[in-house]
Every structure is written in C-alpha cells, then in structure tokens.
Amino acid sequence: MLRYIVLRILQGFITAFVLLTLVFIFAHIIGTPIDLIVPPEASPSERAEAARKLGLDEPYTVQYAKYVGALVTGDAGDSIKFHRPVGDLFLERLPNTARLAGLALLLAVGIGVPVGVLAATRRGTMVDDIARAASVVGMSAPDFWVGVMLVFFFAVYLRILPVARMEEPTAYILPALALSFPVLAGTARLVRSSLVEVLGSEYIKLARIKGASGSAVVWKHALRNALLPVVTFLGVNLAGLVNGSVAVETVYAWPGVGRLMYEGINGKDYPLVQGLLLILGFVVIGLNLGVDILYTYIDPRIRLGRAR
Hints:
- By secondary structure, the chain is mostly helical.
- The protein has a domain at about 90-270: MetI-like (MetI-like fold), CATH 1.10.3720.10.
- About 80% of the residues lie in helices and about 0% in strands.
- It has helices spanning about 1-30, 35, 45-55, 60-70, 85-120, 125-140, 145-155, 175-200, 200-210, 215-225, 230-245, 245-250, 255-265, 270-300, 300-305.
- Helix 8 (about 175-200) runs antiparallel to helix 11 (about 230-245) and helix 13 (about 255-265) runs antiparallel to helix 14.
- The radius of gyration is 24 Å and the shape is globular.
- The N and C termini lie close together (about 10 Å).
- About 30% of the residues are buried.
C-alpha cells in the first residue's frame, strides 16, 4: 500500500514537471510580453533594456532554470495588467470559484444520483429513455450555451433569478447549475449503468430471496457498490469544475479564477495566463492523486489488484 502511494506521488511530480516544461515552451512560442510593457513607439534600445530587466535576453536554459526556481519558492510571476503577483490574485479569486464549484458538485450529486437510480430501477421504460436522452444532451452541451439559455429562461423570460449580483444567495443558482450540468448528466448516466450491472449480481439476488424490500435492495445493498466508479468520476470532475469555470464565470461576470483567466487572455497578460495555467494544472494533478489514493481505501479489490 505504501509503495503504491509513493509511486503515485512520484508520478504526480513527473506530471507536474512535464506540465511546467510545456507551459514554459508554449509561452515562448506564442509571444513575448515586451509588446505590452513598452509603447509601440519605443526604440530598439528601449525594448532591449526592457528585455534585459525581465531576463528575456538570456538563453532559454537560464530562463527555464530561473522559472523553475521561482515556482519552487511560490513565485508564479507578476501580472502585467494588475501589477500584482499571480499567486495573490489566484488566492483572492479562489474562494468565489470554490463556493461555486462546491455548490455545483452538490447539485450534481443531489440530482444526478437519484435520477440515475430512478432510470436504473425503471429500466426500459419511458422514464429511463428520457433520463438517458437528457444525460446525452447534458454531457454534450457547451457550458457557455447552457449558461446563456439559463439566463434567457430564468432571468430574462421568467425574471425570477438574478444574473450577476453575487451578494444575493439566489445569484449562485444559475451559474452553479450551468457549471454542474455536464457533471450532473455524467453522474446520472454512470449511476444508471453501474447500478444496472450491480442489480444483476448474485448477492443482490440473494438479498431478494431473503426477503429484503425493493428499496432496501437498491439503496442499502446495490447503490453502495454502484457508487464506487462515481467517486472517481466526481473526484476527477471536481478539478474540471474549477478549470471549466472560465466560460460560466464569463457569462455571469462571476469574480472567480475563471473570470480572471478570461481577463488575462483578453488583455494578453501572458504572465497571468501562464501562472494560472500552472496553478490550475497543479490543482488538477493534486486532486487526481488524492482521488486515486482514496479509491484504494474505498475498494480493497483495487488495492489488491494493483499490488499483484
């Protein structure tokens, strides 16, 4: 068990190193922040001086070494637009995104699991067909389109929910629902398929023979094992909720990390975008690592299989 955890942590560090290297390479391929720092009428000598101050006149190997060294100390660079460290901007916006992602995850579980159970227990009926069709649509629909449709229906047509006033509790409903839509649909679909498989197993048949009620068989015996793959799915998509918030936070003008990323892209703030990509990438790697390790505790069969 300890060997597996150490191996996964090592793999996480390797993945983080590869991500760091790729972001550095692509950032230098895309362009240079010199054009944003110095005015267009600046002379070549002034541009060269700005490059020297930023260390952009040094060899790429030296720049890369300094870049890695700065990240190790927690320095992800400074934003050109905001004139502040990227790490500070990220921590400032993170609570807004975390609250939104947490509510989206609760909606995905609170709605997706019951819908999946209902579809599995009504297999082959109209309820099952509607649930499966809705799941396909939900997993296929782009986040920004879902966000716009929700705004049109609930805020413009019905006028019952606000769009961009974060101080009101009801303002969380539309962006959280838009953000949770693909995860909710995926959860329902996965619960349905997993529960259908579990309900056909021998121990479920034995529980029915012993006289267990239908609800007890589903909710007490079958659902516990059917949720094992759902745990992994939700863990992976929790990171996706944070990273995928760019479109949703832009639609709803939500002051989170996704909106900050959009502002950096729109303003060509290369250090900000580069720093946020790295930070969010590290968050994804950390969450995936945590879910993978947690899954071995939830299902001992996985642990034993990997040990062999």
